[in-house]
Amino acid sequence: MSRRGPVGLGVPVLVAALLLGGCGTSRSGDLGPAPTAPPTSAAPTDRPGPLPTLATEPTPPPPTGRSPRPSATAPSPTRRPDPVTIELWYVRAGLLVPTRRTRPATVATSRLALTELATGPNRAEAATGMTTLLPASVEVTRIADGVATLRVPSVGDPVTRRLRDAQVVWTLTQFPTVRQVRLDDAAPVDRSDYADLLPPIVVTGPIPGERVSAPLVVTGTATVFEATVSVRVLDAAGREVATGFGTASCGSGCRGGYRVVVGWRTVGEQRGTVEVYEVSALDGARINTMAVPVVLTASD
């Protein structure tokens, strides 16, 4: 019997078996996007999310015992608080007149105001006749329920003391936390108790010595005939360079606020005067004039 038959069959059978083995479930298909490393700018987190397929977890660096390096971003500079502007009420010709001071911000605004009030007017203000009657070292002892309490030395005649008290009350009640002032354990008082100490025309802006430019806004309060407030601007030689008028929010017999805008042309910077006045209903003369010395800046 020949041995070649079985051997001859073995090769085809083996080839067929191999071919049949390749006919199983297909392994082709979409494997998805290839994994990518996280961007170098991504900040590390304490708990990293699931890692992409085939990615390896980075080995944390060994501790060095040194503090972490500061951030390359420079810290933003600390912003200084805005300055505070306070209103001061001085005495002029036996009546109350206002001016302003701008100082570094402070939480003790009442103390700042009383200190500035006791210091007195500057040179430009003093030139208009402003003065102060408040002695130094007067401070508010407490502020509660809108009432500021303080003691003021009881010196001078009654008229002087009342003017001094009016300075304190009108200066302190500019702040929203103070509606009334208690002086020397007396009943609390407010601005209305001293309203008779205001001149017919009060100028709140500009203030003495201020550098002003055109157009100039003149503001204040007034109780004048037909509520009409007039303004004129004089140059260093006393020449009239601008005029204007406006109407207060209240007429004769009551006090109202006013706002008048005036403009001028000047050759160069020079001293000047802003006059705010009432025109007499009797003869048209300027009456109740409030003169404010200023510095006029050049205008085109």
UniProtKB/TrEMBL annotation:
InterPro entries: GerMN, Gmad2_Ig-like_dom. Residues 24-82 are annotated as: Disordered. Residues 110-193 form the GerMN domain. Transmembrane segments: none annotated. Residues 66-77 have a biased composition (Low complexity). It holds the Pfam family Gmad2. This is Spore gernimation protein. It comes from Micromonospora inaquosa. The lineage of its organism: Bacteria, Bacillati, Actinomycetota, Actinomycetes, Micromonosporales.
